[in-house]
């Protein structure tokens, strides 16, 4: 039997929404404060996945000033077989202060998964995690979490369903409150409707997007319910199968459920797909922690579990358990001998377009600050705000996809002011990053290399410096289980030189950033980046020769 190795999409790829159209599978995932918004991945076999495109590429949303982990949440892909249109619903989470969670939800359509997508139509501000369902009678329905703000009421709220107007926006008729969850885990969210045989099935996420996360199921003969819960009273997929009662508990962390022996944590928030041969799978989020520590630098990744329907019409994992696994059976017709991952990145900037793996926090990539044609075979980045900025940092980042890897670049940079810098780094958000950069010496008489760090919003300027006489250097960061080793190589050098001792960067993780006690500080993920800063006149630029990320984890298919 051929087994798929999870995660199928490593690195920041949470809240996966999976669909199949003919012989093609697509998964959309959250992007939070990163642009372009909404990653869309593609596969023809459920085993091998590649980043295909993004949905929000035309300034449809303004993410400047976004606090972690707000932004673009839980996109939902669907396909209307009657109109042959792809639909994408998503929430723009704008505020999380005071646990108010203000989010606007929208929908877009396209004739092709690669767009162009229509202008977003407004759906609702009742909560977050919208999902569309296209019924056989031509009606369309919206399911979403209604966010609860009243004291003494079941938090985080009800799952609600309404008929939706996909031509003009908004809903038709009234919202129908259908459940606050199908188990005692609480924190019901991410509702998705499916029709199978004579039932409407409602898949929801539960337990908070932490160590008690899971996927729950209910069913009804009528789309507005009432929905009966899965008779097991437990999630159908989770990394923490022990019974849990946490109704009304707003904690999304549940650190008490962390299992230091488990390589997969936080399994939950999933969506369902059927293969052409009638096999069923659930795509769901998961995390891989640092060894023996409840810290997840890679954020929430995408995994897959094979499912089956029981004789009494309920969905369960193919092995009969509800414990998410790092391997799952591949489709019966899968014939390729090897699962391949394309998580390694190498670009030498010889193409006339920027590699589509690059993303930027808080604002779009535009020609006024990132350019691939001014200096052929180089990427030119003009310095903008400090990396502490949530508005215009000049960062080109790619998702970290392994717990051991090397990122590397070469650049030429000639600063003329002490606020002008350029280099290579690790980035979680504006308050948390590591930046090895070319800059002026404090005496403003030469160019040097040194490290600047942000930890929970505190600026840490490392004092070790190396002169870079001609402004050109190769830089390398070796990342291993939360530690970063910075090295450099000058043109006349044959070997790499270590800049300073390894730096503890385990805080660059979902649990290590600025969260409340007992809460997850974020749920985005670590990025590698090249970038530049110019808080002087926004006129300096750096030319990057290449950019490489090489992972050192083996992720091949297992054969039995």
UniProtKB/TrEMBL annotation:
Keywords: Glycosidase, Hydrolase
Cross-referenced InterPro entries: ConA-like_dom_sf, GH43_C2, Glyco_hydro_43, Glyco_hydro_beta-prop_sf, Glycosyl_Hydrlase_43
Residues of the site described as Important for catalytic activity, responsible for pKa modulation of the active site Glu and correct orientation of both the proton donor and substrate: 129
GO molecular-function terms, A-Z: hydrolase activity, hydrolyzing O-glycosyl compounds
SUPFAM superfamilies named in the record: Arabinanase/levansucrase/invertase, Concanavalin A-like lectins/glucanases
Residue span(s) of domain Beta-xylosidase C-terminal Concanavalin A-like: 347-550
GO biological process: carbohydrate metabolic process
Highest taxon, organism lineage: Bacteria
Hydrolase found in the keyword field: yes
Catalytic residues, chain numbering: 15, 189
Family (UniProt): Belongs to the glycosyl hydrolase 43 family.
Matches recorded under PANTHER family: BETA-XYLOSIDASE, BETA-XYLOSIDASE-RELATED
Protein name: Beta-xylosidase
């Amino acid at each position: 039997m051929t087994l798929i190795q999870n995660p199928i999409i490593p690195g920041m790829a949470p809240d996966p929404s999976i669909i199949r159209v003919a012989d093609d599978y697509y998964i959309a995932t959250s992007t939070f404060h990163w642009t372009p918004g909404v990653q869309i991945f593609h596969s023809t076999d459920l085993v091998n996945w590649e980043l295909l495109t993004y949905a929000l590429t035309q300034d449809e949303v303004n993410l400047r000033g976004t606090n972690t982990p707000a932004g673009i949440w839980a996109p939902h892909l669907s396909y209307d077989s009657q109109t042959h249109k792809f639909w994408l619903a998503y929430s723009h989470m704008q505020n999380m202060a005071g646990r108010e969670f203000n989010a606007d939800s929208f929908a877009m359509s396209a004739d092709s998964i690669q767009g162009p997508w229509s202008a977003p139509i407004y759906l609702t501000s009742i909560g977050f995690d919208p999902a569309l369902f296209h019924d056989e009678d031509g009606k369309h329905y919206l399911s979403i979490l209604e966010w609860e703000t009243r004291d003494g009421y079941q938090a985080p709220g009800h799952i609600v369903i309404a008929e939706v107007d996909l031509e003009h926006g908004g809903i038709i008729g009234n919202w129908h409150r259908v459940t606050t969850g199908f188990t005692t885990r609480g924190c019901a969210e991410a509702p998705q409707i499916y029709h199978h045989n004579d039932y409407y099935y409602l898949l929801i996420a539960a337990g908070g997007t932490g160590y008690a996360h899971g996927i729950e199921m209910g069913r009804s003969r009528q789309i507005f319910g009432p929905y009966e819960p899965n008779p097991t009273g437990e999630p159908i997929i989770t990394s923490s199968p022990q019974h849990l009662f946490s109704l009304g508990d707003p904690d999304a962390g549940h650190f008490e459920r962390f299992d230091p022996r488990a390589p997969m944590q936080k399994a939950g928030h999933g969506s369902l797909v059927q293969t052409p041969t009638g096999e069923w799978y659930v795509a769901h989020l998961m995390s891989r922690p640092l060894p023996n520590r409840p810290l997840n630098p890679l954020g929430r990744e995408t995994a897959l579990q094979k499912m089956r329907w029981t004789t009494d019409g309920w969905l369960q994992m193919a092995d009969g358990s509800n414990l998410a696994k790092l391997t799952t059976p591949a489709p019966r017709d899968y014939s390729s001998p090897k699962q391949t991952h394309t998580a390694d990145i190498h670009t030498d900037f010889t193409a006339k377009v920027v590699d589509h793996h690059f993303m930027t926090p808080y604002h779009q990539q535009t020609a006024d600050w990132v350019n691939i044609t001014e200096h052929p075979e180089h990427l030119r980045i003009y310095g903008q705000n400090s990396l502490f900025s949530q508005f215009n940092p000049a960062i080109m980042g790619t998702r970290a996809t392994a717990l051991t890897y090397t990122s590397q670049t070469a650049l030429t940079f000639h600063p003329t002011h002490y606020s002008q810098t350029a280099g290579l780094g690790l980035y979680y958000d504006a308050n948390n990053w590591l930046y090895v950069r070319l800059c002026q010496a404090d005496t403003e008489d030469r160019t040097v290399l040194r490290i600047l760090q942000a930890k929970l919003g505190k600026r840490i300027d490392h004092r070790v410096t190396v002169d870079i006489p001609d402004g050109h250097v190769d830089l390398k960061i070796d990342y291993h289980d939360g530690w970063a080793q910075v090295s450099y190589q000058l043109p006349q050098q044959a070997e790499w030189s270590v800049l300073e001792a390894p730096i503890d960067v385990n805080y660059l993780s979902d649990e290590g950033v600025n969260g409340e006690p007992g809460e997850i500080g974020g749920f985005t993920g670590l990025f590698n980046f090249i970038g530049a800063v110019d808080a002087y006149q926004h006129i300096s630029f750096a030319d990057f020769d290449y950019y490489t990320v090489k992972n050192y984890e083996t992720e091949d298919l297992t054969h039995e």
